[in-house]
Amino acid sequence: MAQNMDQTRRDDEERNSGKGWISLIIRFIVAAIVLMITSWLTPGFSSMNFGTALLAALIIAAMDWVIQRLFKIDASPFGRGIVGFIVSAVIIYLTQFLVPGMSVSIWGAIIASLIIGIIDAIIPTNVI
After folding, report:
1. What does the alpha-carbon distance between residue 79 and residue 115 come to, in Å, rounded to a whole number?
2. In terms of Cα–Cα distance, which of 103, 106, 128 is closest to 35?
């Protein structure tokens, strides 16, 4: 019993250490790069520089978090089938109103959601 408690405490300390922050930063950098690639490939999606893509990645993550907390819907394109795909496209479309330098049409958001879902299936989510 005491051994399990010690292991749980060590796991909690490791999760709260700097390793978690580095993992989070790497995830946002990867997400920004994926957005830059997506904006380049997708018609109706303006090309983005790294700063714009990083800000968009932060806002998309925040909107995804809020939707998950309020509606219990995973907003990843392949997370919950067609619902997750549509929610992801809506999040991408709405992000343009909060990120200066980002412009995307409805069709561009739908195509971008598909491309991001494919890239997400190829690139592992857990980098570290």
Report:
1. 14
2. 103
Query: In the structure encoding, which two tokens stand for residue 9, read together?
Result: 């405490």
**Distance (Å, rounded) from C-alpha 115 to C-alpha 105?**
15
Is residue 65, in this structure, part of any structural domain at all? yes
Full residue range of the structural domain in which residue 64 is found? 2-122
List the structure tokens of 71. Answer: 């509606």
Q: Is residue 127 part of a domain?
A: no
Tokens (6 digits) for 12: 């909690």
Residue 116: is it exposed, middle or buried by C-beta count within 10 angstroms (0-12/13-18/19+)?
buried
The pLDDT of 87-114, averaged and rounded, is 92
pLDDT tens by residue, 36-79: 988 998 888 988 899 999 999 999 989 988 888 888 776 665 55
Helices 81-95 and 106-122, packing angle to 10 deg: 120
